[in-house]
Amino acid sequence: MPKSIYENIYRDLKQKIEQKIFAYQELLPSEHTLIQTYGCSRNTLRRAISRLVTDGYVQTIQGKGVRNIYEPVEQTAFTLGEIESFEESAQRSGNRAFTKVLLFTEFEINEKLSLCTGFPIGARVYYIQRLHYLNDIPLILNHNYFLQEAIPGLTKEIAEKSIYQYLEQTLHMTIINSKRIMTVEKMTQIDEKYLNMNSEDYNCMAVVSSQTYNSDGVMFEYTQSRHRPDYFRFYDNAVRKPF
Amino acid sequence: MPKSIYENIYRDLKQKIEQKIFAYQELLPSEHTLIQTYGCSRNTLRRAISRLVTDGYVQTIQGKGVRNIYEPVEQTAFTLGEIESFEESAQRSGNRAFTKVLLFTEFEINEKLSLCTGFPIGARVYYIQRLHYLNDIPLILNHNYFLQEAIPGLTKEIAEKSIYQYLEQTLHMTIINSKRIMTVEKMTQIDEKYLNMNSEDYNCMAVVSSQTYNSDGVMFEYTQSRHRPDYFRFYDNAVRKPF
DNA sequence: GCCGATTTGTCCGTATGTATC
DNA sequence: CGATACATACGGACAAATCGG
């Protein structure tokens, strides 16, 4: 059970929308009504609503109400604006996830790598290559760089399970945010080999590069995720201006 | 000058961060201090800060403060989470934008197109092909579908300028949100021809499909944007949980 | 076109909880 | 432990947009 009231309300409303208890294109009950339903303050309710807005579940119109614009999307998708590990994402969508560690090593950041990753020159990092399978299909080839001084005791065994679980539950690290850039890049021979692709067919990959920060403000991770182009899907909901 | 207090504060802080008045990795002045600086309430200030968080400019840490994690990014990028037209984006980054209308026609949505666009079968739409140039390089091939009943009086001349400007300023339509999906697709002969590409080189495109809603809750636009892979860049900042 | 009721948007002040140092 | 800082929550006031009479 989540901690805060507004998050409980958010989840409850979200669920009701997904279960079509509120019809598509219909207005939700008014703020006033929902406040009485949940017995909370107006600010608290509005906060829950605003999360539904950024999720693209509803749109609010001043003077009118809150309209349900949720339509279900396919499952194998990755959603933006959220930090979710591969395992979490797979579990949420009810798919079988499996991770194979191709390489587990460590080295020092040189000038070229510093430019690419954003780590300072001379920083010591773990470099891990991992292949993520979804329902036995290799979908993502990950190149992880983890700052050693921020992540003591990382092993190949941990990398095979979930590194994020180790970070949060064992090291009690708090992950704050992750800056991501999506690009399209040429497929390499390594990509072809591990993702079981043929460059005669697709010769490009969807590449997501991310820099992740913890609560100490240190960028502890740089990751390049190379996705099979035919399975890659990224969702986003852009909102007008207000929050 | 923007209307609301929190937006003014947001812009002011954002500008100060961009101009490096606050140093990278440093903590901003505390909420209490900033409240006195701006002479506003706590809620108002926190609202401004929360927008900086979703922009990836700062991270807030309970008990510590608000840390500046802004680093400038290259210019030709598209940013997620915002609705911005091609013209606006180009202007913001100080580049020359030019739009060529390749095709301006109208027809009725059939079953196949209904599945693809999300418009109901039988709906009448404008179908527009436009080529967007940035600094004289053709970067994006756009396939726009606009619902006719929502957009009366659209002409080829308007499409050459800015359709969004027409929607907002002439028709006084309010754009609320836009659901987007990013994928990687095979390059077509049309893509090759207009974007001046050669499929011997890259044979894929970055494709952004979007459905845009107005304040009447009607999806009035479906657009497929096909981007040159070598120039395509999409930014995103993922945040932990809270808002 | 105006007015009033409804509904969301903005803003304020205050109290309490919780994490950091 | 206390001081500081952010997080959550409440209640109230007024503004602005929508809609129906």
Word description of this protein:
Two copies of one chain form a homodimer. Chain A has 243 residues and is of the alpha+beta class. In chain A, 28% of the residues lie in helices and 34% in strands. Chain A has eight helices and ten strands. The first copy, chain A, has helices at 5-18, 31-38, 42-54, 86-92, 111-117, 156-160, 163-170, 189-195; strands at 58-61, 65-68, 78-79, 97-108, 124-134, 137-147, 175-186, 204-214, 219-227, 234-239. In chain A, strands 4-5-6-9-8-7 form a six-stranded antiparallel β-sheet. Chain A has a two-stranded antiparallel sheet with strand order 1-2. In chain A, β8 (204-214) and β9 (219-227) form a beta hairpin. In chain A, α1 packs across α3 (42-54). The longest helix of chain A has 14 residues, at 5-18. The radius of gyration of chain A is 21 Å and the shape is globular. Chain A starts with a helix and ends with a strand. β10 (234-239) of chain A pairs antiparallel with β7 of chain B. Chain A binds a DNA duplex (21 and 21 nucleotides) through α3.
Describe the secondary structure blueprint for this structure:
The structure is a homodimer of 243-residue chains.
Chain A: H1 5-18, H2 31-38, H3 42-54, E1 58-61, E2 65-68, E3 78-79, H4 86-92, E4 97-108, H5 111-117, E5 124-134, E6 137-147, H6 156-160, H7 163-170, E7 175-186, H8 189-195, E8 204-214, E9 219-227, E10 234-239
Parallel strand pairs in A: 3-10
Antiparallel strand pairs in A: 1-2, 4-5, 5-6, 6-9, 7-8, 8-9
Helix pairs in contact in A: 1-3
Chain A binds a DNA duplex (21 and 21 nucleotides) through residues 3-6, 30-32, 40-44, 46-47, 49, 60-66, 242.
